[in-house]
């Protein structure tokens, strides 16, 4: 089912009742027809309009449609709409719909962490990091079970980036990347201390590892620990 243009006009009207009717229509269509194109249309509409009413409809979908929504968002992360898609995901996470926990078992979470690890655009890294910061305290057990290893790798990649300070990254962006790294450190160390310390010792503490890793740890990571705990390796 595709949403007709007049339905988008109703969505943006001042009549709150119209929005509720569209929410009901979307859920009925998804339940009866199993046609996920309506979700695709809504996501595409949000990416071009940033419509808060459209966001209201998306977060009101039923739990049975969560996977289809994450499938669509995952595809959008791969294209030119990545920045807008990260914004949409962040807004969905902020609204905490009852089906949000399914994100931890979907491949989209690994992709978001991959953005932190390897995206060339600092803004995308910051956006993805903020999503991770929000998810960890909301879903600590699920996140720790499904995504902790990827989160540790993302932390190391971000620490290396902040240490290298590539010339193409503006100083203002570098400042926020360092802030993102600090928040990520606080959440990982605060919520999963034993796992995190074991990872740091294995990744940075072994003499078999490169001098570059030790430099990253010494210059960027060690200073984040309290003074009495800065010799954890």
Automatic annotation (TrEMBL):
Pfam families reported for this sequence: Hamartin
InterPro entries: Hamartin
GO biological process: negative regulation of cell population proliferation; negative regulation of TOR signaling; regulation of cell cycle
Any Gene Ontology CC annotation: TSC1-TSC2 complex
Record-linked PANTHER family: HAMARTIN
Protein name (Swiss-Prot/TrEMBL): Tuberous sclerosis 1
Lineage of producing organism: Eukaryota, Metazoa, Ecdysozoa, Arthropoda, Chelicerata
């Amino acid at each position: 089912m595709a949403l007709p243009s007049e339905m988008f006009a109703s969505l943006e009207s001042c009549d709150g009742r119209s929005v509720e009717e569209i929410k009901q229509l979307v859920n009925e269509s998804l339940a009866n027809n199993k046609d996920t194109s309506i979700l695709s249309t809504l996501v595409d509409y949000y990416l071009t309009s940033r419509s808060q009413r459209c966001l209201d409809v998306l977060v009101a979908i039923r739990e049975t449609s969560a996977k289809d929504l994450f499938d669509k968002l995952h595809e959008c992360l791969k294209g030119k709409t990545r920045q807008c898609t990260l914004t949409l995901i962040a807004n969905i996470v902020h609204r905490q719909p009852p089906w949000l926990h399914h994100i931890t078992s979907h491949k989209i979470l690994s992709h978001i962490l991959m953005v932190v690890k390897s995206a060339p655009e600092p803004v995308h890294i910051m956006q993805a990091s903020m999503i991770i910061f929000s998810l960890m305290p909301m879903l600590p057990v699920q996140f720790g079970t499904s995504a902790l290893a990827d989160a540790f790798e993302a932390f190391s990649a971000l620490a290396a980036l902040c240490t290298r300070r590539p010339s193409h990254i503006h100083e203002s962006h570098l400042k926020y990347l360092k802030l993102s790294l600090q928040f990520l450190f606080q959440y990982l160390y605060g919520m999963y201390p034993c796992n995190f310390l074991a990872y740091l010792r294995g990744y940075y503490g072994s003499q078999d590892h490169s001098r570059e890793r030790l430099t990253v740890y010494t210059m960027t990571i060690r200073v984040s620990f309290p003074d009495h705990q800065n010799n954890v390796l």
